[in-house]
Specification:
Strand content: 15-25%
Structural class: alpha/beta
Largest sheet: 8 strands, mixed
Number of strands: 20
Number of helices: 22
């Protein structure tokens, strides 16, 4: 490169200018002064600059650099934070059979979190609290990206205060933006009472948790696993979650601790009896699944996510089809001909579902109805099935509540529904009226009416009373209503109907044999009137299916209707909760 500078410049000035330019442009520079025809100075670039300008791939040599003392100090601080609370509290975890929170994250996510937020929360506080007792971040779980929070029980019993609340809220708000699922690994004693002015009633305080839970509800799957006592405000996260897993003998949740309960009511009770896994699995219905230990809890959630999409805009994941565990040819033999004889509906489900694909939720709560995920020909399906093995499959308040919530979740996450109907209808009596049979039954019917996913209804045997409504019968917009040859649809069963209509006439017959014979004739005539063949003849139902072909029929119909479009009336929302 040639340059020319002013005529008054000295040779030294020409040399300095040439050297500076040569280093900058990476090539030789000739410097001419004034009008001189020969250069006053010639400068070559330094060797490293010349290599860079030559276009070669050879990296320029540099000094051997490594972490500074500043970075080493930072890493020591991070290691100190990750050790959690005092060692004596870690020892207590061992006694309780629980993992330290970061070991738990290693169990769930190979290598722990992908990244963590707010690790330095409360680092500069006088009473240093590692991560303020709450870990938040992101991880990959079973091939799925998800948001994660986990309490550190070694830091003030996993309690919540200002900085932890801030981290929790940020995670929820980011989940709304990303549309990725949220995993809550809960082990918290609730809010720190001595610090409540900093987070309790604030606009962006702990109360905002449940607002955000509500906004996330039905948008992304929220799955909560409890590892210890979750008391007061902490107990609302598991009940707001779509799915809650408790660990037997370890988990508990309650609106108040046993000590507070005794102070308020005088009742003396231990934590497990107050709100342990069995209480919420069988009595309240708040626990969907109960795990044996920490490893089993992870296994259950790993199975659960295989039925769920990342968010409400996506379809649930498909799997490779597998034949059922038992042959569909046995379905007709499983279902008794007599409508009052019990049997286990699981025997039907396992002849329809892909082998090993069934995951029942809430099995101990309202067992008169089975709610389960399964796959049919690789497609995730939500099953709502009456269970004749429990109280003849009659619908009680608890089972109606369970079914309504399950249908609502399936519809939110685009999971098709299969109703297997075999019920004498909603239970009657003063006891169930006091327990809200009408209210809970209303919710089940509402959920079924409002579901816009593909629905198939199978009348397996009896479909009496309003049971056929709750089980998505012909009036409830199923894509198909199918009947097995054992099916019956009626206001009530033959015995009840004959008693209601003909009781006085039968009582007038004095001869016992004649009365019994007449009663049998009336019953048979009634059964012919409600038989599934009559319903098919009058096109009340779409088809009678040979039981051994039921699985193939359902697979074909779910495949055909997978893109069906349904709409609800234009309104803000319904008024049924």
């Amino acid at each position: 490169m040639d340059i020319r500078i002013g005529g008054g410049a000295s040779d030294e000035e020409a040399r300095v200018i040439g050297s500076a330019l040569a280093e900058h442009v990476g090539e030789s520079v000739d410097v001419y002064v004034g009008d001189d025809g020969t250069p006053a100075a010639t400068a070559d670039p330094p060797e490293s600059a010349a290599d860079a300008s030559s276009g070669t791939d050879e990296p320029a040599p540099e000094r051997d650099l490594g972490p500074t003392e500043r970075e080493k100090r930072l890493r020591e601080e991070i290691a100190e934070i990750e050790r959690g609370g005092p060692e004596k509290y870690k020892d207590r975890l061992d006694e309780q059979g629980k993992l330290f929170v970061r070991d738990r994250l290693d169990l769930w996510f190979d290598g722990g979190l992908t990244f963590e937020d707010g690790r330095f929360a409360e680092f500069d506080a006088d009473d240093q609290l590692p991560a303020d007792g709450l870990l938040t971040g992101a991880a990959e779980f079973e091939g799925r990206d998800c948001h994660v929070m986990a309490n550190d029980f070694t830091v003030k019993a996993g309690s919540m205060a200002g900085k932890g609340v801030e981290k929790f809220l940020r995670m929820q708000q980011r989940a709304l933006k990303t549309g990725k699922p949220v995993l809550y690994l809960m082990d918290s004693s609730g809010g720190r009472i001595d610090q409540q002015t900093g987070f309790f009633a604030n606009r962006e305080g702990i109360g905002k948790y449940y607002y955000n839970h509500s906004m996330l509800s039905g948008r992304v799957p929220q799955i909560c696993v409890l590892y210890g006592p979750c008391i007061a405000g902490a107990a609302y996260t598991p009940v707001f979650a779509d799915f809650t897993v408790m660990v037997e003998g370890m988990s508990a949740m309650a609106i108040a601790s046993p000590r507070m309960v005794e102070m308020v009511t005088g009742e003396k009770i231990d934590l497990q009896d107050l709100g342990g896994a069995q209480v919420h699995a069988a009595e309240s219905g708040s626990a969907d699944l109960v795990a044996r230990d920490e490893e089993h809890a992870r296994e259950l959630v790993a199975q659960l996510v295989t039925y769920l999409p990342d968010n409400s805009d996506e379809q649930p994941p498909r799997a490779d089809p597998r034949p059922p565990a038992r042959s569909p040819a046995g379905i007709d033999s499983v279902v008794p001909e007599r409508p009052n004889r019990g049997y286990d509906m699981h025997d039907v489900i396992e002849r329809v579902a892909d082998q090993g694909s069934t995951l029942e939720l809430g099995a101990e709560f309202g067992p008169e109805i089975v709610t389960a995920f399964c796959r049919i020909d690789g497609r995730p399906v939500g099953v709502v099935a009456n269970q004749p093995a429990h109280r003849a499959g009659a619908i009680f308040p608890d089972s109606a509540k369970k079914a309504a919530e399950f249908v609502w979740k399936c519809d939110a996450y685009n999971i098709p529904l299969l109703y297997l109907c075999d019920t004498p209808g909603f239970m009657a009596g003063s006891g169930v009226e006091k327990e809200g049979i009408l209210e809970e039954g209303k919710k089940m019917i509402y959920a079924t009416s409002s579901a816009t996913v593909p629905k198939q209804c199978v009348v397996v045997r009896k479909a009496y009373g309003a049971g056929i409504y709750a089980m998505s019968g012909p009036a409830y917009d199923p894509e198909s209503t199918l009947g097995l040859p054992s099916g019956e649809i009626a206001i009530m069963g033959p015995e009840a109907a004959i008693n209601a209509v003909y009781r006085n006439r039968l009582d007038d017959i004095e001869d016992d044999e004649e009365r019994a014979e007449r009663e049998a004739e009336l019953r048979e005539a009634y059964r012919e009137d409600i038989d599934v063949h009559r319903m098919a003849s009058e096109t009340v139902i779409d088809e009678i299916v040979p039981p051994s072909e039921l699985r193939d029929e359902l697979a074909a119909r779910f495949a055909f209707y997978e893109d069906v479009e349904k709409s609800l009336p234009d309104k803000k929302h319904g008024t049924v909760l």
